[in-house]
Amino acid sequence: MLNAFACMARRDVTLALRRRADVLTTVFFFILVVTLFPLGVGPEATLLRSMAPGVLWVSALLASMLALGRLFAQDHADGTLEQMALSAEPLVLFVYAKVAAHWLLSGLPLVLLAPMLGLQFDLPASSLAVLFFSLLIGTPVLSLLGAIGAALTLGVRGGGVLVALLVLPLYIPVLIFGTGAVGAKASGVDGSAHLLLLGAMLAGAAALAPWATAAALRIALE
Amino acid sequence: MVKHNKPGRWFKYASPALFFPLAGQLIPGFRAAAAVLAGLGLYIGFFVAPTDFQQGDAYRIIFVHVPAAWMSMVLYLAMAFWAGMGLVFNTRLSSMMASALAPTGAMFTFLALWTGALWGKPTWGAWWVWDARLTSELILLFLYLGFMGLQAAIDEPRRADRAGALLALVGVVNVPIIYFSVQWWNTLHQGSSINLQSAPSMALTMLLGMLLMALSFWAYSIAAVLLRVRCILLQREGDSDWRRVAVGAAR
Question: Is A212 touching B (CB cutoff 8 A)?
Answer without folding.
Answer: yes
